[in-house]
Amino acid sequence: MPRTIPQLIDGQWRESRARELIEVTDPATQDVLALAPKATAEEIEAAVASAQSAFASWREVPVPERARLMLRYQQLLKEHHDELAELLARETGKTFADAKGDVWRGIEVVEHAANVASLMMGETAENIARDIDIASWVQPLGVCVGITPFNFPAMIPLWMFPLAIACGNTFVLKPSEQDPLTPNRLAELFLEAGAPGGVLQVLHGGREQVDALLTHPDVRAISFVGSVPVGQHIYRTGTAHLKRVQAFAGAKNHMVVLPDAHKEQVLSNLVGASCGAAGQRCMAISVAVFVGESRAWIPELAEQMATLRPGHWKDAQAAFGPLISQQARQRVLRLIAEGKAEGAECLLDGSRCEVEGFPQGNWLGPTLFRGVTTRMGLYREEIFGPVLICLEVDTLDEAIALVNANPYGNGTSLFTRSGGAARHFQHAVEVGQVGINVPIPVPLPFFSFTGWKGSFYGDLHAYGKQAVRFYTETKTVTSRWFDDAPVTGPNMTIHLK
Ligand code: NAD
């Protein structure tokens, strides 16, 4: 009988009283790895109440002490890097190397959160009126909530709770019900690093649990990453309940290829950026736009993609793993079939993919289409599988117009050897994260993750300075001191903590 995973409430790992349980399956075998509870209304209430009460003391903990917690945490995450990656690979199916990358990208945010003191500095101006000075202070909000997707079960929770907590907030995490084991382990290590009870809570479940958090009067801010319809629901509901919301949603990322680009670089970057993690990355390249003569490279792209072989996470030769669920696989199969029916030319078809020894896995092989138009479902929908579609245009400006007309704006890239073309593209393209000869331009944590248009609802983005502003409020103090104020004696000691 698989075990039911506990929830972290008020500093304790507690068995849920939920009657409804969700199966967490191994996507390569369909084995049930564990059961996740759907948190009850009482458990949600208890978690928020504990976070609210912990906030009163946590906000008073000096900033350097909060930063030191992050230093201990990043060290522990590094010590447990392989163990976390193995757990993550089991429940997502990602290859071990890719699972390590997922954890690593999260560790980098924790390293950044250790710099919180300098990120939270306010501003001052002297003598803004006679004898009057003004200063701004940056203060935490209170209880923040994080709702995370299946595709990065380490990185995305770590985008959120370390920075929010370093800023002095408390946090309730509701990870994806499809892979909640890694987030639970991240929380265990956070407690081991010395996080006081109540500062982080972890609840499990789906829509009902999320809705209870979105509408809870004691929740101040909500961070969400996931699909478009859910992102819109989260943004609408959260803001209707007067909360601060940042919602990162789906994408359709184009890579534009100019004929002067380095052909071998283009092809290998396209192969990796489209099929890595079985295409289940919000920054995956799912559309290749070939400009002019570069379209002659498409047959060679098909040959290179055909060499990719999906496999089990323990198989070091596997290029990528299975899709997360049977439903996800069925969805991608439907889009592939519809694309063929709509007249797109399928150069490589991964629909009938088998992996020896794993007949039940959610496998899909690399798939490549050309002759796709912007009206086809293959272009309009986010596929989220190892499927790349090719469009062909005559000029760079046509390519830019195509990208700009797309409703999403998460990431895009241009491959070229021309500085002038690159400058024009990066300036004119209406997408929040642009790569020049870099296929997946995910910014490091000292910048922010800046998706645009239909890929993001809100204004302040994830991690970096923007996240610190999202998780804090600015208080300005205007002060004047009179000459006859009492004078206190000097303080002769240095505080050690
Ligand atoms: P999802 O929207 O199905 O689920 C995300 C979270 O929302 C989960 O915790 C889930 O339990 C919860 N949820 C699901 N349905 C809900 C509902 N009706 N009401 C309230 N909450 C609900 O997303 P997913 O399939 O787990 O993740 C894949 C999606 O995430 C893709 O669209 C991908 O592009 C997107 N994504 C975006 C980014 C980004 O930064 N823009 C990053 C990673 C993933």
UniProtKB/TrEMBL annotation:
Keyword Oxidoreductase included in the entry's annotation: yes
Domain of life: Bacteria
GO BP terms in the entry: L-valine catabolic process; thymine catabolic process
Record-given protein name: methylmalonate-semialdehyde dehydrogenase (CoA acylating)
Pfam families tied to this protein: Aldedh
Residues covered by the Aldehyde dehydrogenase domain: 13-477
Similarity comment text for this entry: Belongs to the aldehyde dehydrogenase family.
Keywords: NAD, Oxidoreductase
Gene Ontology MF annotations: methylmalonate-semialdehyde dehydrogenase (acylating, NAD) activity
EC number(s) reported in the record: 1.2.1.27
Record's keyword annotation contains Cytoplasm: no
InterPro entries assigned: Ald_DH/histidinol_DH, Ald_DH_C, Ald_DH_N, Aldehyde_DH_dom, MeMal-semiAld_DH
